[in-house]
Amino acid sequence: MVTAEGVREAARGLEGVAVRTPLIWVEPLKAYLKLESLQPVGAFKARGAFTAVRRLPESARSRGVITYSSGNHGQAVAWAANRFGVRSVIVMPETAPAVKVEGVKKWGGEVVFAGRTSADRLAKAEALVAEQHLAMVPPFDHPDVIAGQATVALEIVEDLPDVETVVVPVGGGGLIAGVVTGLAAAGSRAKVWGVEPVGAPKLTRSLAAGTPVKLDRTASLADGLITLTVGAAPFAHLLAQRDRLAGVALVTDDSLREAVHFLHRECRLTVEPSGAATTAALRAGDVRPAGTTVLVVSGGNVDPKFFED
Question: pTM higher than 0.70, yes or no?
Fold first, then answer.
């Protein structure tokens, strides 16, 4: 389990590396946005990926790193590896958005395509680990990744000590697990809402079952939130802070699309559907935040053609 000191150590390790992203007030939403879309790779994933790569033993890191990702975590691992001057291999789905594939290549990552599901990507990544002795950097199911994501919450509390609600998108659970852990480390009493697509209700199902549930299939406009399950480590952290969870909302693709356009039109922000999930949930009335509220905008890697719709 990630400790408060583990979160603070991650924050120290990210100083001068990750962007200390701002909070901006959006009057129509009556909420603040935490703009993780401003990270060097355009997503919060920079925090967890860099922390995990930094904490690897030098003997392992020097052989190169590998991950499996639909996009943003892959870009983050490639970026982190680039900063350490080591090789990175990113296993991506055949359906990965071009903007995310190019983002990986921008940081020197070697792209390997494998199927369409996270299981396809994981199998290929594990095979490459065995063949090439690369160090695996999981996208969400690892305490170092969770510790890095927890620094989002530390910054929120430092900038907004009276925060009462934080709304977080949910893919594999690394970010929401990090946020609940980071809020606890900061001594905040804020509650957390999770948001996931209607077509990928893995956290909703898992909380109901009391254990991580693997879905047969997922589908959503929010490609970063369609993992088949939440990770065991994130789920354990959520259960440890169960009283902090206010609820989990489900959003439709129509709501996601509207939220992306709203943020572009009203805030001049370029946000991908996964990053707009929190705004979508609030605008659709799917979350019912109490008091001072922060919506985490998790990423901004979206194809410009999206705005031609």
Answer: yes
